[in-house]
Amino acid sequence: MHLAVRVTPRARGHEVAGIVHGGDGREVLAVRLAAPPVDGAANRALIAFLAESLRVPRSAVAIVSGETSRLKIVRIEGLDVATLRARLGL
Asked: Which CATH class for the 2-88 domain?
């Protein structure tokens, strides 16, 4: 599955901030990360955080687009929408 994620780097900690609506009306998962957006640190932190939160291996999570943007499209293998929402508490 593909997931739109809005990342806020340099937050106090790693957390899912909830679901927000993007400019085009689609749902976007808002994530706050403590890592800075330098040399891919925030991207690596996002992959690790999502993998841990969703209880999937890191290899099942990949950034498909938006590596240099706050809005990213992330591919997550092995989960459906209902399981993803349940594991994130949404």
From this structure: alpha beta
For the chain, give every domain's residue range.
Answer: 2-88
Contacts 24+ apart (CB under 8 A), 64-72: 64/2, 67/40, 67/43, 70/6, 70/7, 70/8, 70/9, 71/4, 71/5, 71/6, 71/7, 71/22, 71/28, 72/4, 72/5, 72/6, 72/7, 72/43, 72/46
CB 61 within 8 A of CB 75: yes
> Could you read off the pLDDT of 51-65 as tens digits, one per residue?
999 999 999 999 999
φ, ψ of residue 78 in degrees (nearest 5): 90, 10
pLDDT digits (tens, 9 = 90+) for 19-38: 998 778 889 999 999 999 99
